[in-house]
Amino acid sequence: MVRNQIRDRGVTNNKVLSAMSKVPRHLFVPKDYADKAYNDNPLPIGYGQTISQPYVVAYMTEVLKPGNMMKALEIGTGSGYQAAVLAEIVDKVYTIEIIPELAKESSERLKKLGYKNIICKYGDGYLGWPEQAPFDLIIVTAAAENIPQPLIEQLSDNGRLVIPVGAPHAIQELILLEKKDGKIEKKRLTFVRFVPFKRL
Ligand code: SAH
pLDDT digits over 103-159, tens only? Predict the structure, then answer.
């Protein structure tokens, strides 16, 4: 998976490649899909949600330029896979999930797998996690029509935020925001397809 789907497509960051090699993706998908866990596509995780394609997880992680002292926020825990990949690299990952059942399942899974540097919570990620802000990195793994303002505010200086932006159930654009001296720089990266961002 790492060689053919990720490295050969241009992801070069060694921290990302090694994190993608370490995290046991088959333990993040429903049992019936375990044999397909390393395939080149997203998979259903129940409740109408999906775990992203391995390449998309690696690419989004790479554009965040993660470092080992950093604090990250993820919106859309889902299976917990993206959180685990980040947690292999950064110091702490805070992650929020809006579907209570998924929030519970993923936090139990991450605990069982021994990820002590991931802090999970159930709630509406639109609001971010003000008590823990600012964050060096923010990753949103559901497609939003607009970039939530609270997340921009909770980004630290020199912080990076990656988010799919666009209409639900359509092709969205992956956007990278960087905060420099309090100013926001915006880059359009590529086209992606994510499940919709919801509100409570
Ligand atoms: N990162 C996940 C992918 C999950 S799919 C993984 O690695 O498996 C996107 C997830 O975002 C879904 O679980 C969905 O319920 C969640 N989501 C959608 N809107 C949200 C919101 N406002 N706050 C938190 N989670 C949200």
Answer: 999 999 999 999 999 999 999 999 999 999 999 999 999 999 999 999 999 999 999
Structure tokens at 19: 């994190």
Measuring from atom 17 of ligand 1, which residue has the nearest CA? 76
Distance in Å from the first CA to the final CA of the chain? 36
Which protein residue has the closest C-alpha to ligand 1 atom 23? 125
Rg of the chain in Å (alpha carbons): 15
Strands 49-51, 43-46: pairing is antiparallel
49 CB within 6 A, ligand 1: yes
Q: Is this model's pTM higher than 0.90 or not?
A: yes
| Encoded tokens for 170 | 């359509």
Alpha carbons 99 and 104: distance in angstroms, whole number: 9
- What is the whole-number distance in angstroms between the Cα of residue 56 and the centre of ligand 1? 15
